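ok so i was messing around last nite and threw this chain in just to see what happens. nothing serious, just curious
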Amino acid sequence: MKREKSRSRASAGGRLAKRVALTVALLVVALTVIPVFLKQLLFKDSPGRALTGVTLDTLDYRDVSFRQADEGLLLGGMLFEPDMPDDSDPIPGVVVIHGSGDSHRENWWYLTLVEFLQRHGIAVLLPDKRGCGRSEGEWKSAGISQLAADASAAIDFLVALDSPRIAGAGVIGMSQGGMVAPVAAGINSNIRFVVNVVGSATTIRSSLLFEEKHNLRGMGVLPVIADILAYPSSWSIIHLRQAGFWKAVGRFDPRPAWERLEVPALALYGADDTNTPGDRSARILRSLKNPDLTVKVYDGSGHSLESPEGEGSSVLRLDALEDIRDFIHACCETE
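result:
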């Protein structure tokens, strides 16, 4: 009799535990799904902010190609030259390093930067990322050192030009390209300056986790749940969805490259960035106490450093463009 009562109590306790577990599971699902559903329902027709930028058909450029010697890759690109007399003095030059993913020649974020610099007397080489446009190779299996070698080859091509004559050259890393930029500077003495536009100074995996947290929040997932779900989501990107790329870049940490940097550098971040941990990156770079490294954080801007609400609609804000221009000219003043 006692055994039967004991089994009965155990059975009842088991059923209660299952009900509690089921209730908790349903609650978690509800807290995850319902906010997302409501956001999609309530805001599905809400237009996003309309930003403006420069288009390729408004710019003058010439197609160029050059060889990346380490792997024998032929890389293509576009050279944007200022409108200047043939006998003019040498001018500054820059190579733009692409962010993550494929590169597209019509990317108006890059082109807005290019047009501004070209208009202010700076030659810009915008290469096609390896495996994109007219460039050989494949970026999806390339590590950071290989991407840095591509940028280094572009710099060597730029400084060797007879026209325009280049007074000094540097690199501008856009987003993930900002992680590549200091590495490139460490392998090529022709690079006289580095500009990092919203490139993370954290490890590449920390940057991914930060972005996934905000991607989930942007979908409507509650912050505390989004911060948890970001871990399995990041894991699936690293090991399943983009396994080749993440195997190539490993656990890259740009900080050692920044610590070794021996040329002037400018790093720009948006205070409202949800792709790159801008505040944390700014703290890391400032902690290096490098007098030749200037770090700026722009209030009211996100990942593209767009104009703040109510102050225009440019995909890249004017004061950031002016800061980049002034920095480049200062670095390339002829002696």
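not much to say yet. The first strand starts at residue 62 and ends at 68.
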